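Protein modeling request. Please complete all fields; requests missing the sequence field cannot be processed.
Requester role: graduate student
Desired output: 3D structure, token encoding
Chains: 1
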Amino acid sequence: MSITRINEFVAAEGQSQALYDFLSSLMTYINDSEGCISAELLQSTDDETSFVVIEKWQSVEAHAQSLANYPKEDMQAAMSLIGAPPKGRFFRS
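Delivered output (93 residues):
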């Protein structure tokens, strides 16, 4: 059984395009991670600052391993693009 993770991001003021570019750059990393089935980035049609990343994984552990392997300095550099704490939850079908 696979799991789905839904992540919500809100861009800091004036940073919508920069956050979109950063999140877009993550899609290859996520999709190439062991245990990832798919990942997709969506931007709201009525609020350009609002983004959702929908990820399908073989397991919660595979997602955790992917996060552990991502360069911490790259994630820290992107924090100034985010206007509110990101939200993320796992769902099963």
